[in-house]
User: What shape does this take?
Amino acid sequence: MNNILEVKNLQIGFNLSDGYRQAVYDVCFDLKKGETLAIVGESGCGKTISTMSVLQLLPENAVIKSGEILYNGENLLNFTQKQMQKIRGKKIALIPQDPMTSLNPLYTIGNQILEVIELHQGIKGKQAFDLAVQALERVKIPDAKEKMKSYPHEFSGGMKQRVIIAMALACNAEIIIADEPTTALDVTVQAQIMDILKEVKEKYNLSLILITHDMGIVAQNADKIAVMYAGRIVEYSSVSSLFKNPKHPYTKALLNVILDINTDKVETIEGQPPSITDDICGCPFHPRCKSCMEICKKITPSLKTVEDSLVACHLYE
Ligand code: SF4
Assistant: This one.
């Protein structure tokens, strides 16, 4: 099956007060129609920057040094802002961590969905209204017709996230990027939102990029996984093979966090990930790695095929 999205050798950095600092190193991943790719790692590992570059929604001081972002074979990095406006929301939709960054508190839910339908599909009036109500019903918002008149502050966090998903459906988006979509919600609502996302993804054959630090969400929802550390992909694998046989010491540490939560013993990963301003020599995980060898302190490992995964670790050389 062809890839709907292919990110190749992406290098991204930031112009900081003390000069340019690289944040994302040679990141590659792909996504097929109907597939869910999870991108996992601790805060600051580069997962959000790598995926926001797909939508060209990067901070002003960010610089994409090189790479390609192929959407249906076309490199989005060559697109103008005007061309990107036709991609964002319409073809590739974003579900952010905080839905209030996408919803305007001053307009009703209905007005906001009608606006995206008009903008992306050119449909107005009764037809647009019916489409908006249908989209709200698809994400299980009760009394959808009535709720069109509500303002965002009248909705709970989970209901607001449903509205954002409804907007993506109303525009017939092909890819949804969900950036920690359930972080701000309580556990029961988290499960409901993930169920809705999974259901609409399967029903409409959407592709999903799920950015998360929660391996439990990954296990239940994703087909494949890219584990990121210090701006690099350190393990790239199918979810089944990663959970059966994790290879990179960082992946194993991430899995231990969740496994130990299940037995009520929480083993966190000791130490902190490096920041963008740290000078890294060798494997970026070496100060925290229990399997660190001399070579790890000097040479940065590159991704290599190990069985059915890609792994960046000297243990496998
Ligand atoms: Fe640990 Fe070395 Fe592998 Fe890095 S390369 S993860 S330090 S064993």
